[in-house]
Amino acid sequence: MAIFAVTNQKGGVGKTTTAVNLSAALSAMRYHVLLVDLDPQCNATVGSGVIVDKAAGSLSEVLLGQASIQSAIQSTNYGYHILPSNHRLTAAEVGLVGKKDKEKHLKNLLAKVKKIYHYIIIDCPPTLNILTINALVAANEVIIPVQCEYYALEGLAKLLKTIDALRQTLRVGLEIHGVLRTMYDGRNLLTRQVSERLMQSFPDKVYQTVIPRNIRLAEAPSHGMPILSYDKRSQGAASYLAFAAEMIRRSRSSQDKMIPMIEGEEKHA
Ligand SMILES: Nc1ncnc2c1ncn2[C@@H]1O[C@H](COP(=O)(O)OP(=O)(O)OP(=O)(O)O)[C@@H](O)[C@H]1O
Ligand SMILES: [Mg+2]
Fold first, then answer.
1. How many whole angstroms from 19 Cα to the centroid of ligand 1?
2. For residue range 168-209, what is the model confidence (pLDDT) as tens digits?
3. If DSSP codes are grouped into helix, strand and coil, which group holds residue 77?
Protein backbone atom coordinates (compact mmCIF):
# COMPACT_ATOMS: atom_id res chain seq x y z
CA MET A 1 0.00 0.00 0.00
CA ALA A 2 1.28 3.44 -0.89
CA ILE A 3 -0.22 6.88 -0.35
CA PHE A 4 0.48 9.53 -3.00
CA ALA A 5 -0.35 13.22 -2.61
CA VAL A 6 -0.82 15.05 -5.91
CA THR A 7 0.17 18.57 -4.99
CA ASN A 8 1.41 21.95 -6.18
CA GLN A 9 0.60 25.25 -4.55
CA LYS A 10 0.13 26.71 -8.01
CA GLY A 11 -3.46 26.57 -9.25
CA GLY A 12 -4.66 25.02 -12.48
CA VAL A 13 -1.56 22.93 -13.23
CA GLY A 14 -3.39 19.61 -13.67
CA LYS A 15 -3.48 18.21 -10.11
CA THR A 16 -7.10 17.05 -10.27
CA THR A 17 -6.82 15.84 -13.87
CA THR A 18 -3.81 13.79 -12.81
CA ALA A 19 -5.38 12.44 -9.60
CA VAL A 20 -8.61 11.34 -11.35
CA ASN A 21 -6.98 9.87 -14.44
CA LEU A 22 -4.17 8.18 -12.54
CA SER A 23 -6.79 6.56 -10.28
CA ALA A 24 -8.75 5.36 -13.31
CA ALA A 25 -5.62 4.09 -15.09
CA LEU A 26 -4.40 2.17 -12.01
CA SER A 27 -7.90 0.69 -11.64
CA ALA A 28 -7.85 -0.40 -15.29
CA MET A 29 -4.59 -2.20 -14.42
CA ARG A 30 -6.57 -4.04 -11.72
CA TYR A 31 -5.17 -2.29 -8.67
CA HIS A 32 -7.46 -1.32 -5.81
CA VAL A 33 -7.44 2.47 -5.59
CA LEU A 34 -8.94 5.06 -3.27
CA LEU A 35 -9.06 8.66 -4.52
CA VAL A 36 -9.32 11.24 -1.72
CA ASP A 37 -10.77 14.63 -2.71
CA LEU A 38 -9.12 17.07 -0.35
CA ASP A 39 -10.22 20.20 -2.20
CA PRO A 40 -13.38 22.19 -1.28
CA GLN A 41 -13.76 22.90 -5.02
CA CYS A 42 -14.82 19.19 -5.23
CA ASN A 43 -13.43 18.86 -8.78
CA ALA A 44 -12.21 15.28 -8.31
CA THR A 45 -15.63 14.27 -6.91
CA VAL A 46 -17.55 15.87 -9.79
CA GLY A 47 -15.00 14.62 -12.35
CA SER A 48 -15.58 11.08 -11.06
CA GLY A 49 -19.34 11.38 -11.62
CA VAL A 50 -20.08 11.13 -7.90
CA ILE A 51 -22.84 12.90 -6.05
CA VAL A 52 -22.24 13.13 -2.34
CA ASP A 53 -24.64 10.93 -0.43
CA LYS A 54 -25.98 13.20 2.31
CA ALA A 55 -26.77 10.31 4.63
CA ALA A 56 -23.33 8.71 4.37
CA GLY A 57 -21.50 12.04 4.35
CA SER A 58 -18.28 13.15 2.69
CA LEU A 59 -14.74 13.85 3.80
CA SER A 60 -16.08 17.07 5.37
CA GLU A 61 -18.43 15.19 7.70
CA VAL A 62 -15.69 12.65 8.44
CA LEU A 63 -13.31 15.44 9.48
CA LEU A 64 -16.08 17.08 11.50
CA GLY A 65 -16.59 13.78 13.35
CA GLN A 66 -20.16 13.38 12.00
CA ALA A 67 -19.58 10.31 9.79
CA SER A 68 -17.17 7.40 9.65
CA ILE A 69 -14.62 7.16 6.86
CA GLN A 70 -16.00 3.74 5.92
CA SER A 71 -19.51 5.13 5.42
CA ALA A 72 -18.32 8.11 3.36
CA ILE A 73 -16.23 6.11 0.86
CA GLN A 74 -18.17 5.40 -2.34
CA SER A 75 -17.61 3.27 -5.43
CA THR A 76 -17.33 5.10 -8.74
CA ASN A 77 -18.36 3.65 -12.10
CA TYR A 78 -14.70 3.56 -13.09
CA GLY A 79 -13.24 0.92 -10.79
CA TYR A 80 -11.78 3.11 -8.08
CA HIS A 81 -13.33 4.19 -4.79
CA ILE A 82 -13.59 7.84 -3.74
CA LEU A 83 -13.70 9.69 -0.46
CA PRO A 84 -15.70 12.61 -1.88
CA SER A 85 -15.66 16.21 -0.79
CA ASN A 86 -18.31 18.93 -0.63
CA HIS A 87 -18.42 22.66 0.04
CA ARG A 88 -18.42 22.05 3.83
CA LEU A 89 -14.76 21.05 3.60
CA THR A 90 -13.73 24.67 4.24
CA ALA A 91 -15.68 24.61 7.53
CA ALA A 92 -14.09 21.26 8.37
CA GLU A 93 -10.67 22.78 7.69
CA VAL A 94 -11.36 25.65 10.10
CA GLY A 95 -12.52 23.08 12.68
CA LEU A 96 -9.21 21.24 12.38
CA VAL A 97 -7.11 24.25 13.28
CA GLY A 98 -7.79 24.16 17.02
CA LYS A 99 -7.46 20.39 17.38
CA LYS A 100 -4.65 18.39 18.94
CA ASP A 101 -2.52 16.60 16.33
CA LYS A 102 -4.26 18.65 13.69
CA GLU A 103 -1.68 17.69 11.05
CA LYS A 104 -2.21 13.96 11.56
CA HIS A 105 -5.98 13.74 11.28
CA LEU A 106 -6.11 12.40 7.71
CA LYS A 107 -3.25 9.98 8.37
CA ASN A 108 -5.15 8.51 11.33
CA LEU A 109 -8.37 8.27 9.30
CA LEU A 110 -6.69 6.57 6.33
CA ALA A 111 -5.02 4.08 8.69
CA LYS A 112 -8.49 2.58 9.17
CA VAL A 113 -8.94 1.69 5.50
CA LYS A 114 -5.50 1.62 3.92
CA LYS A 115 -5.12 -2.16 4.03
CA ILE A 116 -7.91 -2.51 1.46
CA TYR A 117 -6.06 -0.51 -1.20
CA HIS A 118 -2.90 -0.84 -3.24
CA TYR A 119 -2.84 2.89 -3.88
CA ILE A 120 -4.41 5.89 -2.18
CA ILE A 121 -4.24 9.07 -4.30
CA ILE A 122 -4.93 12.41 -2.62
CA ASP A 123 -5.97 15.40 -4.73
CA CYS A 124 -4.76 18.53 -2.90
CA PRO A 125 -6.10 22.10 -3.07
CA PRO A 126 -3.90 24.81 -4.61
CA THR A 127 -2.98 26.31 -1.25
CA LEU A 128 -0.72 25.31 1.58
CA ASN A 129 -3.40 25.11 4.25
CA ILE A 130 -3.92 22.62 7.04
CA LEU A 131 -5.69 20.24 4.62
CA THR A 132 -2.64 20.12 2.35
CA ILE A 133 -0.37 19.62 5.35
CA ASN A 134 -2.61 16.72 6.39
CA ALA A 135 -2.11 15.22 2.92
CA LEU A 136 1.66 15.61 3.10
CA VAL A 137 1.77 14.01 6.56
CA ALA A 138 -0.47 11.11 5.45
CA ALA A 139 1.42 10.46 2.20
CA ASN A 140 4.59 8.46 1.61
CA GLU A 141 5.20 10.06 -1.77
CA VAL A 142 4.42 13.26 -3.63
CA ILE A 143 3.58 13.65 -7.31
CA ILE A 144 4.04 17.23 -8.51
CA PRO A 145 2.25 18.21 -11.73
CA VAL A 146 4.00 21.13 -13.39
CA GLN A 147 2.98 23.21 -16.37
CA CYS A 148 6.10 24.13 -18.31
CA GLU A 149 5.77 27.89 -18.14
CA TYR A 150 7.78 30.82 -16.83
CA TYR A 151 6.93 30.65 -13.09
CA ALA A 152 6.94 26.86 -12.84
CA LEU A 153 10.47 26.49 -11.50
CA GLU A 154 10.00 29.18 -8.89
CA GLY A 155 6.82 27.50 -7.62
CA LEU A 156 8.52 24.15 -7.56
CA ALA A 157 11.45 25.44 -5.51
CA LYS A 158 8.98 26.86 -2.97
CA LEU A 159 7.12 23.56 -2.72
CA LEU A 160 10.33 21.57 -2.23
CA LYS A 161 11.33 23.90 0.60
CA THR A 162 7.93 23.39 2.25
CA ILE A 163 8.25 19.62 2.00
CA ASP A 164 11.72 19.78 3.47
CA ALA A 165 10.51 21.91 6.38
CA LEU A 166 7.66 19.45 7.05
CA ARG A 167 10.08 16.54 7.01
CA GLN A 168 12.09 18.22 9.73
CA THR A 169 9.39 19.68 11.97
CA LEU A 170 6.90 16.81 11.79
CA ARG A 171 9.45 14.05 11.17
CA VAL A 172 7.55 12.64 8.22
CA GLY A 173 9.23 10.25 5.80
CA LEU A 174 7.90 11.99 2.72
CA GLU A 175 9.62 11.43 -0.65
CA ILE A 176 9.26 13.28 -3.94
CA HIS A 177 8.14 10.50 -6.27
CA GLY A 178 8.32 12.68 -9.35
CA VAL A 179 7.55 15.81 -11.32
CA LEU A 180 4.97 15.39 -14.09
CA ARG A 181 4.96 17.77 -17.05
CA THR A 182 1.32 18.54 -17.88
CA MET A 183 -0.50 20.37 -20.70
CA TYR A 184 2.71 19.93 -22.66
CA ASP A 185 2.98 21.54 -26.06
CA GLY A 186 6.27 20.56 -27.68
CA ARG A 187 5.80 23.14 -30.48
CA ASN A 188 6.11 25.94 -27.96
CA LEU A 189 9.72 27.13 -27.45
CA LEU A 190 9.15 28.28 -23.85
CA THR A 191 7.65 24.89 -22.97
CA ARG A 192 10.76 23.14 -24.31
CA GLN A 193 13.11 25.53 -22.51
CA VAL A 194 11.35 25.18 -19.14
CA SER A 195 11.20 21.42 -19.63
CA GLU A 196 14.97 21.31 -20.21
CA ARG A 197 15.60 23.40 -17.10
CA LEU A 198 13.41 21.06 -15.07
CA MET A 199 15.38 18.05 -16.25
CA GLN A 200 18.68 19.77 -15.46
CA SER A 201 17.52 20.82 -11.99
CA PHE A 202 15.81 17.53 -11.04
CA PRO A 203 17.42 14.88 -13.26
CA ASP A 204 16.13 11.85 -11.33
CA LYS A 205 12.73 13.23 -10.54
CA VAL A 206 11.14 14.30 -13.83
CA TYR A 207 8.95 11.51 -15.25
CA GLN A 208 9.73 10.51 -18.83
CA THR A 209 6.02 10.54 -19.65
CA VAL A 210 4.60 13.93 -20.56
CA ILE A 211 0.89 14.73 -20.57
CA PRO A 212 0.10 16.65 -23.77
CA ARG A 213 -2.41 19.45 -23.97
CA ASN A 214 -5.44 17.51 -25.15
CA ILE A 215 -8.95 18.90 -25.52
CA ARG A 216 -10.54 15.54 -24.64
CA LEU A 217 -8.86 15.72 -21.19
CA ALA A 218 -10.45 19.13 -20.64
CA GLU A 219 -13.89 17.91 -21.78
CA ALA A 220 -14.06 14.70 -19.72
CA PRO A 221 -14.78 16.26 -16.26
CA SER A 222 -17.95 17.98 -17.48
CA HIS A 223 -19.26 14.50 -18.32
CA GLY A 224 -18.24 13.22 -14.89
CA MET A 225 -15.81 10.76 -16.45
CA PRO A 226 -12.10 10.00 -16.42
CA ILE A 227 -10.53 10.11 -19.87
CA LEU A 228 -10.32 6.31 -20.19
CA SER A 229 -14.10 6.14 -20.16
CA TYR A 230 -14.76 9.38 -22.04
CA ASP A 231 -12.39 8.71 -24.95
CA LYS A 232 -10.02 5.81 -24.49
CA ARG A 233 -8.46 6.34 -27.94
CA SER A 234 -7.40 9.91 -27.19
CA GLN A 235 -3.82 11.02 -26.67
CA GLY A 236 -4.82 12.04 -23.14
CA ALA A 237 -5.92 8.48 -22.29
CA ALA A 238 -2.72 6.97 -23.73
CA SER A 239 -0.55 9.42 -21.81
CA TYR A 240 -2.22 8.77 -18.43
CA LEU A 241 -1.94 4.99 -18.98
CA ALA A 242 1.76 5.47 -19.79
CA PHE A 243 2.16 7.64 -16.70
CA ALA A 244 0.51 5.04 -14.43
CA ALA A 245 2.84 2.37 -15.82
CA GLU A 246 5.89 4.58 -15.26
CA MET A 247 4.74 5.41 -11.73
CA ILE A 248 4.43 1.72 -10.88
CA ARG A 249 7.84 0.91 -12.39
CA ARG A 250 9.45 3.71 -10.43
CA SER A 251 7.75 2.60 -7.20
CA ARG A 252 8.87 -0.98 -7.70
CA SER A 253 12.44 -0.03 -8.42
CA SER A 254 12.60 1.95 -5.18
CA GLN A 255 11.00 0.35 -2.17
CA ASP A 256 7.62 -0.86 -3.20
CA LYS A 257 6.92 -4.54 -2.88
CA MET A 258 3.29 -4.56 -3.87
CA ILE A 259 2.07 -7.58 -5.76
CA PRO A 260 -0.25 -6.86 -8.70
CA MET A 261 -3.50 -8.79 -8.67
CA ILE A 262 -3.58 -11.94 -10.72
CA GLU A 263 -6.05 -12.44 -13.59
CA GLY A 264 -9.51 -13.35 -12.30
CA GLU A 265 -8.97 -12.09 -8.78
CA GLU A 266 -12.02 -10.31 -7.47
CA LYS A 267 -12.04 -6.53 -7.52
CA HIS A 268 -12.34 -4.58 -4.31
CA ALA A 269 -12.58 -5.96 -0.87
N1 LIG B 1 -3.46 17.89 -20.41
C2 LIG B 1 -4.46 18.74 -20.47
N3 LIG B 1 -4.93 19.20 -21.66
C4 LIG B 1 -5.94 20.10 -21.71
N5 LIG B 1 -6.57 20.60 -20.66
C6 LIG B 1 -6.16 20.19 -19.44
C7 LIG B 1 -5.10 19.24 -19.27
N8 LIG B 1 -4.90 19.03 -17.94
C9 LIG B 1 -5.80 19.80 -17.31
N10 LIG B 1 -6.56 20.50 -18.19
C11 LIG B 1 -7.62 21.48 -17.88
O12 LIG B 1 -7.00 22.57 -17.22
C13 LIG B 1 -7.79 23.05 -16.14
C14 LIG B 1 -7.00 22.90 -14.83
O15 LIG B 1 -6.74 21.53 -14.60
P16 LIG B 1 -6.95 20.87 -13.15
O17 LIG B 1 -8.30 21.22 -12.63
O18 LIG B 1 -6.60 19.45 -13.27
O19 LIG B 1 -5.84 21.67 -12.36
P20 LIG B 1 -5.65 21.76 -10.80
O21 LIG B 1 -4.19 21.93 -10.55
O22 LIG B 1 -6.34 20.64 -10.11
O23 LIG B 1 -6.43 23.12 -10.47
P24 LIG B 1 -6.72 23.70 -8.99
O25 LIG B 1 -5.42 24.28 -8.55
O26 LIG B 1 -7.79 24.74 -9.20
O27 LIG B 1 -7.18 22.57 -8.14
C28 LIG B 1 -9.05 22.21 -16.16
O29 LIG B 1 -10.04 22.90 -16.89
C30 LIG B 1 -8.64 20.93 -16.91
O31 LIG B 1 -9.72 20.31 -17.55
MG1 LIG C 1 -7.79 20.70 -8.55
1. 11
2. 888 778 899 999 999 999 999 999 999 999 999 888 999 999
3. coil
